[in-house]
Every structure is written in structure tokens, then in C-alpha cells.
Design brief:
With about 80 residues, the protein is of the alpha+beta class. The chain contains three helices and four strands, in the order E-E-H-H-E-E-H. The strands form two sheets. The protein has a two-stranded antiparallel ribbon. Strands 3-4 form a two-stranded antiparallel sheet.
């Protein structure tokens, strides 16, 4: 769940993930996991984007098609100056 590779136990009911707890492993993460790992399951049902959105200047959001979103992203990325690899 996180970049640390913590050992976890995922508790489920049917296909629903209910919670994530640390699995005791003294060599890796002892008995601790980060908050990011512990609460990552929340994003599986909540806070999911189902369509691209564009934030307006007033803070509201406008629905976009995937084509519009990729075009906008391409325009923004083309303005970024970086070093050649």
C-alpha cells in the first residue's frame, strides 16, 4: 500500500475491504504501518473520480470528456520546461 513495503493484513467481508492492520514482522515494519497504508482502503469506495474534471477559477468543477482532458493535459505538459534526458 505504501512505498515502505509494510506487511499488512487486509480484513474483508465478501468483496468489501473493511480495514487494513499491520502484520507483525520485526525485520520489516515491527508492528507499525503508516497512516497512508492504514487508511488507503477508504479510497476504494469513496473519493473515486468517474470522469475527468476541470477546476474553474471560482473553484467549481466542470465535467470533461476524456479527449478534452487529455488535450488539456497535453497543453499543460507542453508548457513545462525541463532538461533533455
Amino acid at each position: 500500500m505504501d512505498g515502505l513495503g509494510s506487511n499488512i493484513d487486509a480484513h474483508t467481508r465478501g468483496s468489501d475491504l473493511l480495514r487494513i492492520l499491520p502484520r507483525i514482522n520485526e525485520e520489516v515494519n515491527e508492528e507499525w504501518i503508516s497512516d497512508k497504508s492504514r487508511h488507503a482502503f477508504d479510497g476504494l469506495k469513496k473519493q473515486r473520480l468517474t470522469m475527468p474534471l476541470l477546476r474553474n477559477k471560482d473553484g467549481s468543477f466542470k465535467d470533461l470528456t476524456w479527449e478534452e482532458a487529455l488535450t488539456k493535459a497535453g497543453e499543460k505538459l507542453s508548457t513545462v520546461k525541463g532538461e533533455e534526458i
